[in-house]
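Hey all, quick one. A colleague (J.T.) asked me to put the glutathione job into the tracker so the inputs and the structure tokens live in one place instead of scattered across chat threads. No bug as far as I know, just bookkeeping. Sequence used:
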Amino acid sequence: MHPVSTVCRPVRLFCAENGIKIEEVTVDLMTGAQHKEPFASLNPSRQVPMLEDDDLKLTEASAILKNCRPILPTSRSAPRSTR
Ligand SMILES: N[C@@H](CCC(=O)N[C@@H](CS)C(=O)NCC(=O)O)C(=O)O
């Protein structure tokens, strides 16, 4: 994750709002850390956010949010339907 990333922001807000404890690792986009090891091998798209949960690796913010949704079916920040 990176604090200035607008794509990371919904993930960070969702976790904060719902009390999901995550170990947040900052990948410093300003110094190009996304293109360096160890991150480059973890995520070949070399973008943040990325979720690593045991053998599960998700590299899209939308996929990360959807993965969290079943845990919190009543969450306000991740509606079940957009209708
Ligand atoms: N499709 C990705 C896009 C992620 C994305 O654009 N991340 C940007 C930061 S907001 C990034 O990591 N940029 C670094 C780079 O492209 O070098 C998602 O939705 O999660």
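Adding what we noticed when we looked at it: DSSP finds three helices and two strands in the chain. Residues 5-7, 29, 34, 46-49, 60-61 surround glutathione (CB under 6 Å).
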